[in-house]
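Tutorial handout. Part one gives the primary structure; part two gives the three-dimensional structure as tokens.
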Amino acid sequence: MTTKIFLVRHAEAEGNLFRVAHGQYDSVITPQGYRQLAYLRDRFRDEKIDAVYGSDLTRTHTTASALYGPRGLAFRPLPLLREIRLGVWEQMTWGEIQRLDRRMYVDFNKRPDLWRAEGAETFAQVRDRMLAGIRRIAAENPGGAVAAASHGAALRTLLGTLQGMSLAEIGGTGHGDNTAVSLLEVEGDDIRVVFRDDASHLPASVSTFRRQTWHKDDAATEPGLWFRNTTEGDTRTAEAMLDEDCVGRVVMTLEPDFLRVTDYQIVPALRGQRYGVQMLGQAVQYARARDRETLVLTCEAPLQGYFAKYGFVPAVGGMVMDLRRVIREIPAIGE
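Part two.
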């Protein structure tokens, strides 16, 4: 009796967009991620699915809603499917991690058997719990068809293992785009990878990987920013650093019910190269750390379209982003 398990990497989340290390930090899906979910839902429109699982983190629960919602199924949270716990790396920018420990950064992507971080899991531990999760899903759904939402590093580790690779060999494999789909067939103790990391349902306009280069580099490096923070009273200034050069800044002021961005600038030579969104990520993270559910900024009309891409909407007094962790309605394709 064969059980089919469709594995789905979560849609684009804030860590992917802002280039911040989010392992088991509970981040949320971005506006682009919701557009990806429309295409994921359409891909599975005619597919028989009997049950939908996912890790118990918000970004996978939201992703799974594209599959369980249309079918009237319950979501089955399974912590075994979580992303790797990153320990002291959690919520650091990838640029900062490279600056502090480039060797370990490279090992994370290229030699997972060697990677270590204080307070983190090892990739061997991730491999073992992911295998346990798959076997539990198969045991609970003999002969059925199941979908399960999980995470990039965890899925890469699992899929490589099932294809007979060691952890060292897995470091030479590729990465799956957000909402990429893989298919397993489980029969007894045998688990076969039918296909993996298929994101053919995503047009280029909504693909995360089409806007990023790190996954194409042999060492999976990228020219990421790190931030030098200073705080005076209710105001924090995050200076954006590229190597040792200050290339921009974002200034944030805590108001009673929200966080206001009062200054947001980057050197002209770096505009249009996706550095600015990393600065926006600092404001989002600071707002959440200070229990603010709303981010407010004022900008000139030509920039309103730029900020609208990342979830801001016009409002009295500026543009506003709602930071509450909710599963929103998935749009129609193309919206």
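Part three, for discussion. The CA atoms of residues 110 and 272 lie 29 Å apart. The chain has ten helices and 13 strands.
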